[in-house]
Structure prediction request, 184 residues.
Amino acid sequence: MVLGLFQTERYARAILSTHPGATKELVDERVTARLARRSEFDRRSAPVRVWALVDEVALRCCVGDASVMHDQLMHLVAESERANVSIQVLPGMVGHAGRLGAFAIAERSGHPSIVYLEDAADGSVTDDPAIVKQMTLIFRSLGTRALPLDASRDLIARVDDEQWKPSARTGARALTAVATEGTV
Prediction:
């Protein structure tokens, strides 16, 4: 999935609605909390520096509908143009350690690093040095396989053009065959 910090409201609503037993009220509450975290990120006087790795699968996996995906990918392109944000794509449809679960590493000068680990049930935060070291190693390892920044932005835009952009959907024609006399 796309990192929660970079999710549009519609994408967040669509993905959070897939949880078993999710009520409209619970989804609304979680979307509001996610957007509040996002606004805190935007409000800081000293911008937070974010390096994000996004799996190409997340760009191609339909969450909501095509319009949700188009808006989400265009949002990623816009975010990737911010001076304090680096978004790189892990290309291809191959397995890697990042697919075992989403995570984020927070580092602040003069403080120990912390890791947020996400799974299907919930998320947790730890400052356990062994886990921080392991997740940092995984992040750096994945970063060596990721596309450079400009190539990542280009891939995001290309996936949108090919798969989610409204003109790509409305301009496509279905191939049909009509049997005519004399054809086999």
Notes: The two ends are 47 Å apart (CA to CA).
